[in-house]
Amino acid sequence: EEAVFLRKKITLLRAFSLLIGSMVGSGIFISPKGVLKNSGSVGFSLVVWFTCGLLSMFGALCYAELGTRITKSGGHYIYILETLGPLPSFLFLWAEFFAIRPANSAVVSLAFGRYMLEPFFAPCAAPVPAVKLVSLLGYYMVLTLNSWSVTWSARLQTALSVIKLLALALIIVPGMMLLAQGHTENFQDAFDRQSLVLDKLPLAFYAGMFAYSGWFQTSFVREELVRPERNIPLAVIVSVITVIVGYMLTNVSYYTVLGMQDVLASPAVAVSFVQRAFKSLISVVPVLVALSCFGTMNGGIFTFSRTLFVASREGQWPPLFSMIHIRRHTPLPAVMLMFPLVTAMVCIGDIYHLMNFFSFSRWLFIGLATLGLIVHRHRHPELRSPFKVPLFVPVSFTIICLFTVAMSFYSDPLNISIGCTMVLSGFPVYYLIIHKQMSNFLWNKLFFLFLPLSDYLTHKLQLLLEVVQQEIKTY
Fold it and tell me: Distance from the CA of 452 to the CA of which of 118, 268, 336, 407 falls in 20 to 30 A?
C-alpha cells in the first residue's frame, strides 16, 4: 500500500548516539592491555591513546567532508568506488565481508560474553565455551532486532549510549578521587624507554584505533540521515571530542588504581578495576560494560548491512541483497548475511589475534578512502562542499594510515600476511565475475546453465523473505 524504501529516521541525536555507541564499546575495556603491552610503559601508552584520538578526529573530519560530497550510503565502499574506481572498492568489499567485519563483530561479541559472565565466576575466569555461547546469543538478539525495525534499533542505540557514558563515569570518578588524594605512585618512571620496542608500536596503534573505531559510522547510513549536510559534521566533531576526553580519563583512572602489571595480567581490565576500587559494584560494572559491547554490536550490524545493500545496488554483490522488507522497511537479506561467518569466528577465534588480523585491512582501506578525498577534490574543483577540511588533514591522515599498515608487517607478519592474502584473493574473483568483459565471456561460454537456477533461487528467496527492490531513489 506504500512505497518501499529506506526512510530518513536518523536525527542528529540518533546520529550522535550511533557514533558514541559504536566507539565506546569493547575497545576501552579490552584495548588498554594491548596498547600497554605494545607501547611498553604507562606514559607512552597514554601518548598512544591521545594520538589515536587525534588521528580519529582527522579521519572523522575527512569522512564528514566525503559525506557531504558523495550523497550515497555505504561508507568506505562507496567513497572508494566513487573516487578510486570499481576494483579497489570490490577488494574492500571482499576483505570487509570475509575478514574485517566478521572478525570485528567476533571481538565485540566475545567481549560481551566475557563481561556478562565475569561476575558469576569471579574470582575465577569464565569457562570459554560458556563465553562463546553467551556471545553468540547476544549477537543473534541484535541481528533479530535489526531485521525487525530501524526505529527500534536506533532507539536501543540511544539508550545504550547513555549506559556507555555511565559505565565510563563509574570508572573515571573513583580513579580521579584517588589521584586527587595523591596516589601517583603508578605514574613514576612513566616514560621508561628501556621497555619501548619501536616495531611493536603499530600494534599499539591498532589496539588504540580499534577502541576509537566507529567515528565513520554515519557515512554508512547517509541516505537515512535527516539533514545530512548539517548533522554529519556536527555529530562527528562532538562525539569524537567526547570520546577522546572520556578515554584519556578512563586510562588514567585504570593506571591510578591498578598499575602497569595488574593491567597486563588482567583478562578483563574493567572487572579488575572494580574489584580493586569498590567491591560493592562488582556485579554492576561488568554488566554495564557488556551492555556497552551490545550497543557496539548493534551499531556494527546496522551500518554494515547498508554497505552490502549499496554494493548490491551498484552491481558488485548479488541483487537479492539490495532488497527491502515490504512492511518492515529494513534491508533484511543484507542484515542476515553476516551471521554464519561471525558464528564461525566466535567459535574458533581469540580476541587479540582477531584484532591484529582485521586491523591491517581496515586501516589500509580507510587510508585509501581519505586518499580518494584528495583525488575527488582534484578532479572536481567546481564542487562546493558545505563542509571542507584543510588539505593537510587528509594528506597527513592518509600517510599515517598507509605507513602504519606497512610497518605492521614487521610487528605481526603472520596475521598481517593472512589479512593481505585475504585482500589479494579478491583479484581473481573481480576479474572472473565482476569485471564486465571477463564476466560476460565466462557467463556466456561456461556458466550459462546456472543463470536460470540463480534467477529461480533469487525469486524463491524474495518470496520467502518478503523483500523487493527499493522503489524510490534516496540519493
Answer: 336
The total of structural domains in the chain comes to 1
User: Contact at 8 Å (CB) between 32 and 313?
Assistant: no
Burial of 383: CB neighbours in 10 Å, binned 0-12, 13-18, 19+:
exposed
117 lies in a domain? yes
Full-model pTM: 0.85
* Residue numbers of the chain with a pLDDT score lower than 50: 438, 442-443, 445-447
Task: Please check whether residue 323 lies inside any domain of the structure.
Answer: yes
320 is in which domain, residue-wise? 12-469
CB atoms within 10 A of CB 280: 8
**pLDDT tens per residue across span 60-113:** 999 999 988 898 998 899 999 999 999 999 999 998 888 778 877 888 888 888
Burial 204-228 (b: 16+ CB within 10 A, else e): bbbbbbbbbbbbbbbbbbbbbbeeb
What is the distance between the terminal CA atoms of the chain, rounded to a whole angstrom? Answer: 23
340 upstream amide cis, omega within 30 of 0: no
Structure-block grid coordinates of residue 401 = 594510515
Q: What is the DSSP letter of 384?
A: -
Residue 325: its H or E element: strand 323-325
How far apart CA 342 and CA 337 sit, in angstroms, is 10
Give the number of other CB atoms < 10 A from CB of residue 352: 18
Q: Could you read off the pLDDT of 374-386 as tens digits, one per residue?
A: 999 999 888 877 8
Amino acid sitting at position 128: V
Q: What CA–CA distances, in Å, run from 181 to 38, 176, 412?
A: 30, 9, 41
CATH number at 126 reads 1.20.1740.10
